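Incident review: delayed structure delivery

Summary: a single-chain prediction request sat in the queue longer than the usual turnaround. Root cause was a stuck worker, restarted by the on-call engineer. No data loss occurred. The affected request and its eventual output are reproduced below so the record is complete for anyone auditing the incident later.

Affected input:
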Amino acid sequence: MTEATGGTHNGGATGAAGADAGADDSASARRVRVVLVDDHRMFRTGVQAEIGETARTGVEVVGEAADVDQAVTVIGATRPEVVLLDVHLPGGGGVEVLRRSAALMADPDRPVRFLALSVSDAAEDVIGVIRGGARGYVTKTITGTDLVDAIFRVSDGDAVFSPRLAGFVLDAFASSDAPPVDEDLDRLTQREREVLRLIARGYAYKEIAKQLFISVKTVESHVSAVLRKLQLSNRHELTRWATARRLV
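Output delivered after worker restart:
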């Protein structure tokens, strides 16, 4: 990656002058202050390692949170430019964080902007957080370089989406009709929905555990709960059920 403050020195410049210019460039380089909100500590650590080298990326991670209450507290205390927000969190999810941060988002002098960063690429998740006030939505398959770019763009007020997710938003806001309520789907927790989609896509339990940062036993428990709540017998019926509702 090319350094933001890097450059070549012309021959004849004195060492002191070159050092001073480099210091001035570094001091004037733009910084974006970020809070990471995700209930998986290992994922937060990985993101911070990827984007948190401020001198290299221009991103300064000023706080972290693992649930809704922590997120609201940390965001209010640090007032970052951008919040990287997981959609599914203990305590009400990303939409609840957005609801409780509405005043900060509306501040004309120091607006806090939200960028959803989630494993989920489901239309209802994307539409839910965008309606809640998030400026964009990217999935966790994004590269570190692209994530840094998305953070700066959101900080500038742009809307940023992973390529195929933008269509969900356009479709949703092109129609004044609210999406229909699915009572069966509403019985499931957010985590159960994540597991449901991955099962329906053919992922093995070990692959799901790795992607969601949970144990295989926890995956098994979620699958059992989904089958029980939906009154289904096996993963094949579950796949048909999810496909019929376009959740895959």
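Verification: The longest helix spans residues 216-230.
Action items: add queue-age alerting; document worker restart procedure.
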